[in-house]
Amino acid sequence: MKELAAAFVKAQAEIKSAIKDSENPGFKRGNNLSKYADLSSVWAACKDGLQKHGFSVLQPTDFDGNDVWLRTILLHSSGESIEGRYPLRPAQQTPQGYGSAVTYARRYAAL
Questions:
Q1: Which pLDDT tens digit goes with each residue over 77-101?
Q2: Which is higher by pLDDT, 39 or 7?
Q3: Average of pLDDT values for 60-71?
Q4: Helix, strand, coil % (nearest 5) of the chain?
């Protein structure tokens, strides 16, 4: 974990804030639509810093009995890695509902 930690400190110094360039039509603040950073904006903010310092990110889904999880695995070129899980709780039990839940979880679990 020593090499991963040292490289992550360097990568994190280069990670930018994600740009809130999307609007949520279902949520308003006063007369304005709520803005948020979509998944592509989140990755655009961190991808270069991560890659420069030997990182890649995997985000597969995982099934545990009746529960569905998003696993986020931060891999380093040294072979070291760290991971976590985020529960998927779709509003609707449909392919679209799970797709939305996965996208939401990927944004929140990215880093």
A1: 999 999 999 999 998 989 999 999 9
A2: 7
A3: 90
A4: 40, 35, 30
Among residues 5, 56, 91, 34, the alpha carbon closest in space to that of 103 is found at 91
Chain centroid, CA 92 distance in Å: 21
The b-or-e profile of 67-89 (16+ CB within 10 A means b, else e) is ebbbebebbbeeebeeeeebebe
The H-assigned helical ranges of 1-111 are: 2-14, 39-52, 95-109
For the record, the structure tokens of 19 come out as 């740009």
pLDDT tens digits, 14-49: 998 888 887 776 666 666 667 878 888 888 999 999
Instruction: Dig out the tokens for 13 from the structure.
Output: 């110094």
Cβ atoms of 74 and 52 closer than 8 Å: no
Name residue 111's amino acid.
Answer: L
